[in-house]
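Possible race condition, two jobs.
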Amino acid sequence: MDKTKFLAASLLCTALLTGCSKEPAATEQKVAGSTPAPGTPAPATEAPKAAAVVQVAKADRSKPLAEYQDLKSGRTVMFAYLSVDTLPIDYGKIAGLVSSEYASSQDEFRKHDLMAALKPGIDAEIAKARANRYYRMEGEVEVEKYDFVSKSFQLGTFKDSDAQMYFNDIQNYSVGFANAEQFQRLKVEDEAQARRVEAVRAETAVGGNPLQKAYAKHKLFLSIYLFASEARLGQPVLIAEIVRVQLKDEKGNVLAEM
């Protein structure tokens, strides 16, 4: 089974910051002639309406892991994003990403014909993604040495909780995690199990030197089971809820999970 190597890209803080200001409190103004006549009941004041709260979908954690579909391409990330995005679909942009001919053509009639052929397929892929929002990503992971105080291993994948992951085929769309901070450390309290993980981890880099990683005796892989929760407003980032992670050896054996 081909292993997809995770690529993490840190978010730009400036892209996340938005200005926030409070509206000044409304001042009472008395207008001439607006005072109700004696004995006339004052008009009822309409109660302010509560602001609508957007409910973000949550994962069903009872769903069998075997039903999670593989997420190993930017194309899949893109359609997963579009399936939860609330904004209108930019078919021209999507067509240019899935069809090199559409992207390179200068003939508007040809592009019109190509769009007619591509649009049903795009809609079908979005509908498919909307029907199953559960995915599994897998790739090589760096694991730090066992911490005896917390009885855990730090996972390099989630060391930066704001990190995003993308694939080389379509890098325009990436995956961010809503609850990455909960999975930064893989808890392994059983000493015998922790020893097994540490023994493999110690050989993932010769002498502990990352530059010699190509000559490592073993590699560790992380399977991330996630749920496509929402699309980040104004950015092509799919926000996913992590449901479970599994640390595996090269043969696919689960060494630890949470």
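Job #2 (started ~2 s after job #1):
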Amino acid sequence: MIRGFNGRNILAVAFLLLGFFFIIIPVYAATPQVAAGGWHTVGVKTDGTVVAAGNGDYGQANVSGWTGIEQVAAGGCHTVGVKTDGTVVAVGINNNGQTSVSGWTGI
């Protein structure tokens, strides 16, 4: 069971039990990895695609076209993925260069 603040629909589904909110992330049983950012949550599915929930004001949840991903990380307002071929992809805010990963290979 995962618990947390859900003010921006980060965790999507909430249940009230004995005065506490218990949150279930809307990812699937076939999701081997989940990462939580400042206002969003992402998960890698076994087929290499990525799902996201929560605030996407800076594009950090724009992962619907990602394929061949084996690992993800989520920052405050950005998301990074490592593909099976060793390249890196990133979306979200880039005010400090945190998504400037084009050309990264062999990771």
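DSSP finds no helices and eight strands in the chain.
Logs attached separately.
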